[in-house]
Amino acid sequence: MADTRLDEDVSEVEVKSELYDEDGFVAREFRERVETAIAAGDSEMLREEISPLHESELGDLLEALDNDNRQALVRLMGDAFDYTALTEVDEAIRLSIVDAMPNEQIAAAVRELESDDAVYILEDLDEEDRKEILERLPFRERIRLRRSLEYPEESAGRRMQTEFVAVPPFWTVGQTIDYMREEDDLPESFAQIFVIDPSFKLQGAVDLDRILRAKRPEKIEDIMHETRHAIPAEMDQEEAAQVIEQYDLPSAAVVDSNERLVGVLAIDDVIDIMQQEADEDIKRLGGVGDEEISDTVLTAARSRFSWLLINAATAILASLVIGLFDATIEQMVALAILMPIVASMGGNAGTQTMTVTVRALAARDIDFHNAGRIIRRETLVGLLNGLSFAVIIGAVAAVWFDSGGLGSVIAIAMVINMLAAALAGILIPLVLDRLGADPAIASGTFVTTVTDVVGFFAFLGLAAWWFGIG
Amino acid sequence: MADTRLDEDVSEVEVKSELYDEDGFVAREFRERVETAIAAGDSEMLREEISPLHESELGDLLEALDNDNRQALVRLMGDAFDYTALTEVDEAIRLSIVDAMPNEQIAAAVRELESDDAVYILEDLDEEDRKEILERLPFRERIRLRRSLEYPEESAGRRMQTEFVAVPPFWTVGQTIDYMREEDDLPESFAQIFVIDPSFKLQGAVDLDRILRAKRPEKIEDIMHETRHAIPAEMDQEEAAQVIEQYDLPSAAVVDSNERLVGVLAIDDVIDIMQQEADEDIKRLGGVGDEEISDTVLTAARSRFSWLLINAATAILASLVIGLFDATIEQMVALAILMPIVASMGGNAGTQTMTVTVRALAARDIDFHNAGRIIRRETLVGLLNGLSFAVIIGAVAAVWFDSGGLGSVIAIAMVINMLAAALAGILIPLVLDRLGADPAIASGTFVTTVTDVVGFFAFLGLAAWWFGIG
Predict the structure, then answer these.
(1) Any stretches that span the bilayer, and where are they (chains A, B) (predicted)?
(2) Most exposed: A183, B18, B179, B317, by fewest CB within 10 Å?
(3) Among candidates B442, B445, B339, which has minimal Cα distance to A347?
(4) What chain A residue is nearest to B320 in terms of C-alpha separation?
(5) Cα separation of A130 and A155, whole Å?
(6) What percent helix, strand, coil does chain B show, rounded to 5?
(7) B380 contact A CB<8A
(8) Which domains does chain B have, with CATH numbers?
(9) Residue pLDDT, tens place only, A119-156
């Protein structure tokens, strides 16, 4: 099929197919060609190959290179390097690239960037470097960036763009369009224009399609809509993203404590924030905190160590429970063989309930007060599956060790532990959320502690009582 | 502070503060007032209270009500009910509401909706109802919806809006603006206009802010940009969302197999898709498939059962390994007490590595071919933490059972199992991904199977050899 393509299409298709392989990863050939050019110091070839790339494509390429090559690439490309790409890579990679650049060069790069991208890079630097870089910027940019950096980390004020279009309410559509045609200093792209009074207080917003549909003499105040959902600059970025997402806003005005317009959160920022937060949730549930794939071995090992230490403590607790029944086990070694099954099934069932609960909490589908319905539901699910697996595992145990008594004991223990799993899986995240902790980060350990302890205690205790040993 | 508020602001603020409580959940008082009005059949009060709500707010309210009240609310509100809200609730809730409506009413509702929302509702209905409803629609709408429904589930064609603005390349900016001012049948909102040739083949796109900056005599073809990232209608929705996200597009053209423009994927659809996919990933990692909080007890129990059954099989496998060493345990019951620690630590470490790997695969940061670096990293992390916990747990065991031998055995087993955990945590998702399976859904069980089996075998086997028993 390829040779039937029209000539003018070929170059475009080639760039794309060269950078990525068919699975969507950076292609080995492309990476190796870049590495060869870097090794040869061939900055002309690099500019030619890399300048046409989109910032996100350049970001992917940077992630595929090793650290020395990343720094060399930035150095060799000089002015032709698109620093926006730094907002597309992991924090560890961004830092390693920026750290290798002299402050003067960082300042020159920052000047080329939109304000939100500039803040993204500046916020990771240490105080001293940041101060020196800011001082090298023109007055107006310095003031704007400094103000954004004064807002708390992960706030809307940090993520907002300080470039926006704002007009007074008494302007006509014609005046507004003429202004946009004449004015050179507009943001690179925008989806709404905002309406402000002389003190910069936010009055409303107009979507661009509304302006295009209106006649020239119409007044802006007549076609604007009130901005019921202005974002306070101090608001947490996740909360701000949720507001924009809930109300399908094309972008949102960010206001300071006096309701003055200070910036705009664009929808692509919202998408970035949402991805970041979803990633955080998944990693917290998996016990790897905020680790990134580019972290060093030591950083990763240290960040996982604390989680494993908590798990070690709870595992020892479970062992203490087993230790209570050492005499029983000594006389009936089948118990040692079977007991991990009870604990493992409980742990899995508890994790299932916990996952559903953590997601429902994140989506605000349940809270501490209206949890009754969910608790009933989960208890019933736990009971149903508890009974199913009581039959299955009970039968396996009875046949394996030729003992109806052992089958009965493990069956009852299974029902008890599945019920405990359901209750722990729902109550632990609910209580953690109520106490202001992130249920995603802490629930896992607590839930499996409960299912281990209850599982071993119920099974070994019942066996000791049933067979009268220990 | 409240009494200093200006009069005109009060009503707006009140609606908001009444619907949600301070934690962002639907407030109990609001829900109870609605429930009272439903019980009294007071449709006038319901219309007054509920009509001002945003579709997403109405969706939250529906989720907070029980099923009978949901259906009654829709019935009592009649024409005043905003059916867009049905796209904001869980599938189970949507179905229960729609199933209670006569087809005639569904057809009337569908006619009021944008095409993507209409498809959202129609796709869940059974074949016969869908056919009857479509037949009640005007010809043009019927054709459009039918075409959307012919695309595969979860494809871009299903999620696209078939309403869009398209103009020929030779039009001027002035002509285009005049057209938008005169034409009544424009989409409710749009972020780009598309450029097509007479056969509807896509030529390019123009962002609205670009039009507003251009002078009236400028030609559209001179200000348009090529749409390098047109989305084939058959493309999976997740892949389409990734393209739009990667290139920060305000919206994307959807084209059929002849490259003719058939619809547009708006950015808010992209956000919905991304949320849905993140939710799916988290639930799959937690072993609850695509379960929703509104699923019935039986549906939930059944969907979790299969996952638990796999886990039961692997738990029995681990028990078989323990069974190999029954004579050893009989002589040294401390082994039974300590063995869950080795398995549990391995399981947790394996889950950590697996979580990092699954996320890196989803973000396309690693693949089968360039995994060498990550495998080295994870092996080193496993070795480091394995050594740390070998010392900690080894010391605990040695003191607890007053046996340096036992401490040494558990320490060595710990290092072996943490290394196995690291390798399983990275290789299993990589291989599953390579085989085309979703690593999020299947990796968990395989990884803990490996860490259980290796953990028990290493610890008990070493003990049998060290102490010469069994």
Answers:
(1) 305-325, 380-401, 407-432, 444-467
(2) A183
(3) B445
(4) A337
(5) 19
(6) 70, 10, 25
(7) yes
(8) 17-159 (1.25.60), 166-269 (3.10.580.10), 297-467 (1.10.357.20)
(9) 989 998 889 999 999 999 999 889 999 999 999 999 99
